[in-house]
Amino acid sequence: MNNDMAQSTVVSRSRMSEVSPDRKAAAVNVEAAETFIAEKRIGERIKYLRLKKSMGLVELGRHTGLSASFLSQLETGRVVPTLRNLARIAMVFSKDLSYFFEPEPETLFRVHRRGERVRLPQTGADDPSYFFESLGYLVPDRQLDPYFAEFLPVKAGRAPKPHQHAGCEFLYLLAGALDVRHGEATHHIEAGDAIYFDADTTHSYVCSGNMPATALIVTMQHPLTARVQNGSSLANGTNGRGVRSISTGMLQPVAAKKSLQRML
Predict the structure, then answer these.
(1) Top-level class of domain 114-263
(2) What class does CATH assign to 2-100?
(3) Pick from 152, 138, 131, 144: which is nearest to 211 by CA?
(4) Sequence ranges of the domains in the chain
(5) Cβ neighbours for 252, distance < 8 A, ≥ 6 positions apart
(6) Which of 16, 34, 174, 180 is a good FRET partner for 68, with 20 to 30 A between their CA atoms?
(7) Average pLDDT, the chain
(8) Distance, CA of 247 to CA of 220 (rounded, Å)
(9) CA pseudo-torsion sign 157, 158, 163, 168
(10) Distance between CA 219 and CA 228 in Å, rounded?
(11) Phi and psi (nearest 5°) for 95?
(12) pLDDT of amino acid 107
């Protein structure tokens, strides 16, 4: 009996040693899969899709056939989903299964330090009447262009340079006073005033005080399609305070300085 037991023990150990590598590999694969899923933050992505649709766990459970408690554990990362369950959830939100495994897009966030900005003068003028700094030059494929502008007090013999361009602009006057000519009309604005206008009409601006005037300006390149019934632009429908700001030509990104020079 002792010999049989000894042989059985040897055989069992031998079998275990034969199976052990496979079992170890399986354990490693499971661990690797769980780590991969955790890194993809699938639970957070499911929760994001659910909340975006204002959907509760119970409602999502009805659509997928999964219990609300399971979905809750799934969102918090306490359970690992099977591909079948994940596919059910993806279908509810009209997503491909690959959505949960693709790299997450980076959140757009850029800081433009004051000391890193470049101050550029009015283009094409030997004696510039304003200077400007791009506040969005580090943002790729931006939908709008923000700027800081400084208008210098007028000098004798210096005439404003009118310009026009597609798109619309917004200007908030931080300090000082400006006289802005828009088409045939001239408007006066002071610190705290804001203007919004399409830029298709020729416009120019003159610092009307003894101190420089500063402004925050935002431009968009998209044409303004909305018009008032009389055919004039929406910007012209203001009550005498509506004013133009710096042109898009002046307000091009620093990296596009050559293009900016052609426009102004």
Answers:
(1) mainly beta
(2) mainly alpha
(3) 152
(4) 2-100, 114-263
(5) 134, 145, 259, 260, 263
(6) 34
(7) 74
(8) 10
(9) negative
(10) 21
(11) -115, 150
(12) 74
Tell me which residue of 158, 42, 150 sits closest to 98, measured CA to CA: 42
Answer yes or no: are the C-beta atoms of 124 and 261 closer than 8 Å.
yes
Number of Cα atoms under 13 Å in the Cβ half of residue 76 = 8
Q: For the chain, what is the HEC assignment?
A: CHHHHHHHHHHHHHHHHHHHHHHHHHHHHHHHHHHHHHHHCHHHHHHHHHHHCCCCHHHHHHHHCCCHHHHHHHHCCCCCCCHHHHHHHHHHCCCCHHHHCCCCCCCCCCCCCHHHCCCEECCCCCCCCEEEEECCCCCCCCCCEEEEEEECECCCCCCCCCECCCCEEEEEEEECEEEEEECCEEEEEECCCEEEEECCCCEEEEECCCCCEEEEEEEECCCCCCECCCCCEHHHHCCCCCCCCCCCCCCCCHHHHHHHHHHC
Q: Tell which wins on pLDDT, 47 or 235.
A: 47
Whether the model clears a pTM of 0.70, i.e. scores above it, the answer is: no
The arithmetic mean of pLDDT across residues 19-25, rounded, is 51
Q: What is the pLDDT of residues 163-187, one digit of tens each?
A: 887 788 899 999 999 998 888 889 9
pLDDT recorded at residue 92: 92
Q: Which two tokens stand for residue 160?
A: 């404003």
Q: What is the pLDDT of residues 212-243, one digit of tens each?
A: 999 999 888 765 554 444 444 333 333 333 33
Maximum average pLDDT range among 9-13, 14-18, 31-35, 89-93: 89-93
The residues, ordered by sequence, that sit 6+ positions from 100 with a Cβ below 8 Å of its Cβ are: 40, 42, 45, 46, 86, 90
Handedness of CA 59, 62, 64, 65 (dihedral sign): positive
